[in-house]
Amino acid sequence: EKSGYDTFMEKEINDQPHAVADTLLGRTDAEGNLTLDELHIDVEELRAVTKIVIVACGTAAYAGMVAKYAIEHWTRIPVEVELAHEFRYRDPVIDERTLVVSISQSGETMDTLMAVRHAKELGARTVSICNTHGSTIPRESDAVLYTHAGPEIAVASTKAFLAQITASYILGLYLASLRGTSYGRDAAEVMAELQGIPAQIETVLAGMDRVKEIAYYMADSRSVLFLGRHVGYPVAMEGALKLKELAYIHAEGFAAGELKHGPIALIEPGQPVFVIVPSPGSEHGLHDKVVSNIQEIRARGARTLVIAEEGDEDVVPFADEVIRVPHTSPLLAPLLTVVPLQVFALHLSTAKGLDVDQPRNLAKSVTVE
Ligand code: BG6
């Protein structure tokens, strides 16, 4: 069942090209237009949506945070992302024109289910992005968009994360095409780029030998920090979560712009910091700003582990290690940049002799509140 891999986690990381490709499958017509008839929500209702609230827990919530950047950009609908257990117990501003999108691999996470029920009570339309057919959350939602990652066995989520981002992008592009808000690129163009992502993930996976070596010599690390900006920010938090879950190492993800407002005080000689660098082609000069951040922390002695696009030479003078990913448009980059962070956590956990598939104290699906 592990297809020759030592652990389910390693198998599932290597399954990711399929998870993305299968989630894209069958969602476009011959002309490349999105066809989401499976949603079964009235198109007029979708056109009338004034706000989207994404509710989820853990890795699924980070997929939601990534999705926010893309969905707002494409649809111009405000998107909030909230941890399901927080959403449920405050007094959220929700009405019939709010679309509440839950994201859950298992479809059984009680916190997320309670949030969906609460949203329905408040009159919202509910869509579930889910990996498990017939599970409770999609059954109780008005509509479902399944991710096709296949069964995920390892407790720490990997391929479901990529499939969740893919599915929420499909939803965002569909809403944008319904509303005619293409903002620069139309849905078919982005879908075509998404179709190329699986091959690019293969490229990333094929280059992971050095990441494994780094993980082995970092096995004694007590703390690892992760910096990212824009969509790289949730990726940084997901990278930190993987390391906590799998290797029991204190890890924290920060927005790179926040560094000077506090976290830079943590930097001391030898502190390892992963930095996810935006594409040199990113708008607003974000690439250069993050390169400056690398320079700042390096000057204070940090060990910089830099994830940067192929051909980005600006990072080289300030990087102790450069991990390369192929070029994508900025919003699609998380589908590539998270992969080395998953691989790093996997090997660090293995290097410490830990149970990669069943980390201590965790369950695959938490069915209590
Ligand atoms: C946690 C799992 O308990 O639940 C995480 O350990 C997962 O891996 C989170 O991301 C949410 O689970 P689900 O099934 O709702 O996506």
Automatic annotation (TrEMBL):
<comment type="subunit">
    <text>Homodimer.</text>
</comment>
<keyword id="KW-0963">Cytoplasm</keyword>
<dbReference type="GO" id="GO:0008483">
    <property type="term" value="F:transaminase activity"/>
</dbReference>
<comment type="function">
    <text>Catalyzes the first step in hexosamine metabolism, converting fructose-6P into glucosamine-6P using glutamine as a nitrogen source.</text>
</comment>
<feature type="active site" description="For Fru-6P isomerization activity">
    <location>
        <position position="364"/>
    </location>
</feature>
<keyword id="KW-0677">Repeat</keyword>
<protein>
    <recommendedName>
        <fullName>Glutamine--fructose-6-phosphate aminotransferase [isomerizing]</fullName>
        <ecNumber>2.6.1.16</ecNumber>
    </recommendedName>
</protein>
<feature type="domain" description="SIS">
    <location>
        <begin position="42"/>
        <end position="181"/>
    </location>
</feature>
<feature type="domain" description="SIS">
    <location>
        <begin position="214"/>
        <end position="359"/>
    </location>
</feature>
<keyword id="KW-0315">Glutamine amidotransferase</keyword>
<keyword id="KW-0808">Transferase</keyword>
<keyword id="KW-0032">Aminotransferase</keyword>
